[in-house]
Structures are given as C-alpha cells and as structure tokens.
Amino acid sequence: MTRALLARLRAALTLPPGDLLRNATYRRLWTSILISSLGGQVTMLALPLTAAVLLHATPTQMGLLTAMEIAPFVLFSLPAGVWLDRVRKLPVYIAGEVLIGVAVASVPLAWAMGWLAMPWLYAVGFFIGCIFTVAGTASQIVLTQVVERDRLVEAHAKNALATSGSDVAGPGFAGLLIKLFGAPLALLVDAVLVIVSAAILRGIHVDERRTPRPDARFGRELAEGLRFVAEHKLLVALAVAVGTWQLCQNAAQVVQILFATRTLGLSEHAVGLCYIALGAGTVTASVWGNRISRRIGPGPSMVLGFGVCGSGWLLLAAAPVGPWGVAAFAATLALYGAGAVLAFINFLALRQAVTPEPMLGRMTSTMRWLILLPAGPGALIGGWLGEHHGLRSALAFAGGVSMLLVIAAWWHPVIRGVRSLPSAAKPVTAGGA
Questions:
Q1: Cα(133)–Cα(110) distance, rounded to whole angstroms?
Q2: DSSP conformation class of 20
Q3: pTM of the model
Q4: What's the N-to-C CA distance of the chain in angstroms?
Q5: Distance between alpha carbon 60 and the CA centroid of its chain, in Å?
Q6: Over the Cα atoms of the chain, what is R_g?
Q7: Is 357 exposed, middle or buried (0-12, 13-18, 19+ CB in 10 A)?
Q8: Phi, psi for 424 (deg, rounded to 5)
Q9: Quick one: pLDDT band at residue 62, thresholds 50, 70, 90?
Q10: At a CB cut-off of 8 Å and minimum separation 6, what does 413 contact?
Q11: Tally of CB atoms within 10 A around 424
Q12: E strand map for 75-219
C-alpha cells in the first residue's frame, strides 16, 4: 500500500516529456521569477500598509502613491523600448532586480532615521516604476529568447504558476513579518530575495548579438515602433481592452487595503492572511489557463479574465461589515487573481507572437505605455471616489466598467476571433540592430 502510494506520488511529481521545466535555461528563469515574486508579495503588502497604517494616508494620497508608481511607464516607456532594441536584454533585467532591492531597502532605513513620510514613499514608488519600465520590458523579451513562440501561452502560464506559488505563501509570510517586525522592516526581506533572484539570473545564457546600424536614428526607430503597433489591428484592440482593464484595476486597488483595514476592521496580519486567497485564485488560473486558452482561444480567454475580475470588485462593493464581509474580501482577491492571470497570459502571448524579434523592445514598451496611460487616472479616480463618495463607490466603479468592457470586447470581432496564436507580422524595418 505504501509502495503504491509512493509510486503514485513519484509519478505525479515527475515532469512529463517535453515539459518546459525540463529545459535547464527556462527552469533557472522560472526559479528566479518564483523567488522575486515572493519578495514582491512582501512589498505589495508592506508598502501600502506602511502608508495606510503607519503614515495614516488618505484615499487621495493612496491614489497618488499608485499614480507615482505608474508615471514612469507613461514618461519613459517609448524611449526605453528604442534603447532596449539596441542592447542585450538579460544584463538590463539583472541590473533591475538589484536596483529594486536597493529601493525597497531605503524604506526601513528612512524609518529608522526618522525620515519616513509620504513624499519618501512617492519617491520610492516612482523609482521602482522607472526600474519596471526598463527592466520589466527586458524580462518579457528574455522569455522569448528562451522559449519558442508557439509555446508562449504555456510559458506565461508556468510563469504565472511561479508567481501563484508566491501568492499563496507570500501573503501569510508577509503578514507574519509585518506583525513581528512592522511593515517597514519587512521590506528588507524583499531586498534580500531580489538580490538572490539576480544571482540566479546571472547563470542564464542566451544567444543575443547586437550590431549597431550606422544609419540608426532614435526618433525614426521610435516612430517605427509606434507605427508597427498602430497598423496592427490586433495590437490596437489589445491595447484598448487591457488599458480599460488597467483603469478599473487601479481604481479598485487604491481602496482595497483601506476598505479592509477601515471598513472591515482587519489588522495588518489578517489582511495578509486574506491575501492567501489571491494566491489560490492565481494558482487555479495558472494550472488551467493554458487548457482554457487552447479550448476557447486566447481572445475569449482574455475576455473571461476581465469578467472574473469585475465580478469580484462588484462583490466587495456590496459586502456587509462582519464575517461575511471578510469572506467577500477574500473571495474578491481570489477572483482578481484568477481573472488577472487569465487575461495576462493570453495578452502577453498574443502581442509577442505577432511581433518579429527586432521589434520586440519597441512593441513591448509601446504596448505597456498604451495600457498604462489609463492606469494613473484610474488610481486618481478611485482615490477621489473613495474620499468623497465612500470606498464602496470606487469598487462599484471598477466592477461596473469592467463588465461594460466584457460586453464590448466580446463583440469586437478581432478579439473574439482569435482562437489560436497568430504568426509574427512583417516589421517596418529591422531598426536598432
């Protein structure tokens, strides 16, 4: 009996032939993502809790903090894309991990020195946003250098599974750290983990050579990237749909922690425990996301993700105070986790699949710029609604607009009609290399 049980357990843990994790290079990248995501969970809780509980931030200040994290994408994404198409991506990715560690470590240092205030958090948020603008784009391109184009949905699903594992363990871990040491000191753990992630990335080898073109011009290459996206109907449709979702997501995100701590009366540790539900949602979508995409297509799967997120925000907007409200908060996090994974593994795979390699930097940065243009206004709208009309109104706004997005995206023939990953389009020019 025991021998049979051990055999079944061994079979369950054995990777099937052809699994991406059998690839040593991808496995190293996946491990780095897992570790970095665990640290990111600490920051995701500790930074807003530092603002909300320690510095007593208002909803408007919480919205401004989120907007400061998003502003660099709007300001620097397009030039960053041109630059990335001229350089090797992996060193940029590694440097970004190290700089994130330095940024988050500055918060407990400022707290210990008595300097910590909202302007400091605004500066840290802006600096981290700058890093993600450049290094985050580089990380997405590195994946296409490690994985074949026709397996991008599978790769993004496995990456989401890595972050999902962190989503399950991270909030409880972060909540415990915050309870024991306080939110500012908990950020030191993220600093250590991203340094470890950078060390793992240093062992990855990708074949990427860049030969500068003598006739390369920055302005012309930037225009080529914009024109490539503008002339591709699928990329335009994706930018509009995901940009609208980002507006909703940021409107809800700026009030979620405030709703949990001030309306539901949850402690920092209890908030961390509730965030385990976020991990459960992301794990579920990560495991089933690739199958759902193969079954109904990447376009419809992305629309399904929008709807799942919107239903969660509407649920929390109507949640009562008390145990049922706490359960609704956890359910909202689970629905958001599942919906976001479903939306983004398909969105990322679709935009990468249709783009030739020489345009990947400019396409990625242009798309990130377009989808995050509405994110800052969304955060400010959520903060304004929360402060002047109650926290529930911001959640209702996010959920209601998300459902309108589902209807519009479902009836859009370009999105609804994508039932498999398309092939790469012809680039305007090679540009940059």
A1: 25
A2: G
A3: 0.71
A4: 61
A5: 23
A6: 21
A7: middle
A8: -65, 140
A9: confident
A10: none
A11: 14
A12: none
